[in-house]
């Protein structure tokens, strides 16, 4: 199966060509090597998981993709072009949205306003127009408001539209954060431990939303998750990291049977 | 109504209007503090600088006249024209925006992720720099600011209240104008921050820098916008205070009066700045009226600070500030 070919999965979704490719990425903090010579690709329409034990460098990898960190070595190819070093907000404008492990919502703002900020990259009116709320600025507000409302419906959070998100329970905050990232209609959606700290029921809800997002909008998703069960259930392909190296890459079944991966997760017997 | 009560009412009204002016200065502090966590010590000097620039432009002063004359041996001071008030206000606004851009380029950009105390020190430096720069640019003499705002006692209120209560209220028309302007300013700022893309971005940055970046908001651009708005607020405050008591160095000291206002209202709350300003304004006038004669007067100098101090003990986050909860 060559990387350029598209194929159809068992559940009928189409996986397209490579949208993002990491080539030999190395990231150091002073003397500490967080990521060591890792390459992998993400294909259009797939759910790609990055797993690994604590401190394996998974979050660093996500931060490299969205521009919070700049790798010392390696190339990042996005939408067929080599990406020049960019600041995070510029990368957002390229169509990469994300959520955070520890939830980074705008806590004082309502659910609706949080999701509206997710539309930021799609709103083009200038400051002067906004100041007088005239012409394009007004139209733009109305149009984007409609899209935000659709996302609110989709995530079933109508009842908390006007609630300041700081007051919401953890599980709902995670869902609002997903909504804000979705509002950007990203080419690539990064989810940093979307199910961390959730109970079983909340995890099931979140898995369903992730699958629905991928299915209905065809959104390409790269996610980090600790819960192996969930990862194996929802992802098409999995990258396994350990101590900053890549130790496995393939379908959930391939990864499950990979000896290095088993060793990393269960430990190597000392005999 | 008894004479004493009427007099007290007049004092309260005057206090409210003085409070509006405090609130205007405090507002500038809150805007910058919310968006960047910087306590901008230079806010008061910005008001002074804005007022000086406005007068300078309006009366056709040559900027840096003293410097130019010293170096070139010339004797130029005035262009010899007068710029209409509205146009000079717009031009001054332009200068304040330019100033915001420079602050971001020269200062803030290099201090990203530094401790708040470092940023605070930087703004102290900025304040003294601006003070000197303002003097160099426009001269250090006391200037008269006149943009056509109404001044003097309001005859209408005086006669009406005299007819009703047999006691004429003394209210300065400038104070009334300041109140109206402040109300309009606050309402438009609120609407802007609630219902526009940039307004939401401002609130987003105030809340969480990383998340703001991740949705595509450029922090640097937002800082320029925030400092521009703060410059605009400083200009409005400078016009009001300047019209009241002339454009002079002491104008920058009103910034210090904004401190107790902020302690009362909370550093992060716009309504807090308004209510805090009003409380201080009314409080110090009433205190002076009721207690002043007993302690030999001049209580207005310290009342606000003592009130803020007492307030700090019981409610450190201020009236409307976010509650500080620290996990141990």
Automatic annotation (TrEMBL), chain A:
Stored SMART domains: AAA
Key words, A-Z: ATP-binding, Nucleotide-binding, Transport
A Pfam family hit: BCA_ABC_TP_C
Domain (ABC transporter) ranges: 20-268
GO cellular component: plasma membrane
InterPro entries: AAA+_ATPase, ABC_AA/LPS_Transport, ABC_transporter-like_ATP-bd, BCA_ABC_TP_C, P-loop_NTPase
Recorded GO MF terms: ATP binding; ATP hydrolysis activity
Transmembrane region(s): none
Family matches, as CDD domains: ABC_Mj1267_LivG_branched
UniProt name for this protein: ATP-binding cassette domain-containing protein
Organism: Oceanomicrobium pacificus
Organism placement in taxonomy: Bacteria, Pseudomonadati, Pseudomonadota, Alphaproteobacteria, Rhodobacterales
TrEMBL record, chain B:
Subcellular location: Cell membrane
Predominant location category: membrane
The keyword Nuclease belongs to this UniProt entry's keyword annotation: no
Keyword Repeat set for record: no
GO molecular function, one term: transmembrane transporter activity
A GO CC annotation given for this chain: plasma membrane
Key words of the record: Amino-acid transport, Cell membrane, Membrane, Transmembrane, Transmembrane helix, Transport
InterPro entries assigned to the protein according to its UniProt record, in alphabetical order: ABC_transp_permease, BCAA_transport_permease
Protein name: Branched-chain amino acid ABC transporter permease
Organism: Oceanomicrobium pacificus
Lineage per the UniProt record: Bacteria, Pseudomonadati, Pseudomonadota, Alphaproteobacteria, Rhodobacterales
């Amino acid at each position: 199966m060559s990387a350029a070919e598209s194929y159809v999965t068992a559940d009928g979704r189409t996986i397209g060509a490579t949208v993002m490719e990491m080539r030999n990425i190395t990231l150091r903090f002073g003397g500490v090597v967080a990521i060591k010579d890792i390459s992998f690709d993400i294909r259009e329409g797939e759910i790609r998981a990055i797993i690994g034990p604590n401190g394996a460098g998974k979050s660093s990898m996500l931060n490299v993709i969205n521009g919070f960190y700049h790798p010392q070595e390696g190339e990042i190819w996005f939408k067929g072009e080599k990406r020049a070093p960019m600041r995070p907000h510029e990368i957002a404008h390229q169509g990469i949205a994300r959520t955070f492990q520890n939830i980074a919502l705008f806590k004082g703002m309502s659910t609706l306003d949080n999701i509206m900020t997710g539309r930021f990259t799609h709103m083009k009116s200038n400051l002067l127009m906004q100041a007088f709320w005239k012409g394009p600025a007004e139209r733009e507000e109305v149009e984007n408001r409609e899209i935000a409302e659709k996302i609110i419906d989709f995530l079933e959070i109508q009842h908390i539209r006007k609630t300041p998100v700081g007051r919401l329970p953890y599980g709902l905050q995670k869902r609002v954060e997903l909504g804000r990232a979705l509002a950007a209609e990203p080419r690539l959606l990064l989810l940093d431990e979307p199910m961390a700290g959730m109970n079983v029921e909340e995890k099931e809800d979140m898995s369903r939303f992730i699958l629905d997002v991928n299915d209905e909008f065809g959104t390409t998703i790269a996610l980090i998750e600790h819960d192996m069960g969930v990862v194996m259930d929802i992802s098409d392909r999995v990258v396994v990291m350990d101590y900053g190296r890549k130790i496995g890459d393939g379908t959930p079944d391939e990864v499950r049977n990979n000896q290095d991966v088993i060793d990393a997760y269960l430990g190597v017997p000392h005999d | 109504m008894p004479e004493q009560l009427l007099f007290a009412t007049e004092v309260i009204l005057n206090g409210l209007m003085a409070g509006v002016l405090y609130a205007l200065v405090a507002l500038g502090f809150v805007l910058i503090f919310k968006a960047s966590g910087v306590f901008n010590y230079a806010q008061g000097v910005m008001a002074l600088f804005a007022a000086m620039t406005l007068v300078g432009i309006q009366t056709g002063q040559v900027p840096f006249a003293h410097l130019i004359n010293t170096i070139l041996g010339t004797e130029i001071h005035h262009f010899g024209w007068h710029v209409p008030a509205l146009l000079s206000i717009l031009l001054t606004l332009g200068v304040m925006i330019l100033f915001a851009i420079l602050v971001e380029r020269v200062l803030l950009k290099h201090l990203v992720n530094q401790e708040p105390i470092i940023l605070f020190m930087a703004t102290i430096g900025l304040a003294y720099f601006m003070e000197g720069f303002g003097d160099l640019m426009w001269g250090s003499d006391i200037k008269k600011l006149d943009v056509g705002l109404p001044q003097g006692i309001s005859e209408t209120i005086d006669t009406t209240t005299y007819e009703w209560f047999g006691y004429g209220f003394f209210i300065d028309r400038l104070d009334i104008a300041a109140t109206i302007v402040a109300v309009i300013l606050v309402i438009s700022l609120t609407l802007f921050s609630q219902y526009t893309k940039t307004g939401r971005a401002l609130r987003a940055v105030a809340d969480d820098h990383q998340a703001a970046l991740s949705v595509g908001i450029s922090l640097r651009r937002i800082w320029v916008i925030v400092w521009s708005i703060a410059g605009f607020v400083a200009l409005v405050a400078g016009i009001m205070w300047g019209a009241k008591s002339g454009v002079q160095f002491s104008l920058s000291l009103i910034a210090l009066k904004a401190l107790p206002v902020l302690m009362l209202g909370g550093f992060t709350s716009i309504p807090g700045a308004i209510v805090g300003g009003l409380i201080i304004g009314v409080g110090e006038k009433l205190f002076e009226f009721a207690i002043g004669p007993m302690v030999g007067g001049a209580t207005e100098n310290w009342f606000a600070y003592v009130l803020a101090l007492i307030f700090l003990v019981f409610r450190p986050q201020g009236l409307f500030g976010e509650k500080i909860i620290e996990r141990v």
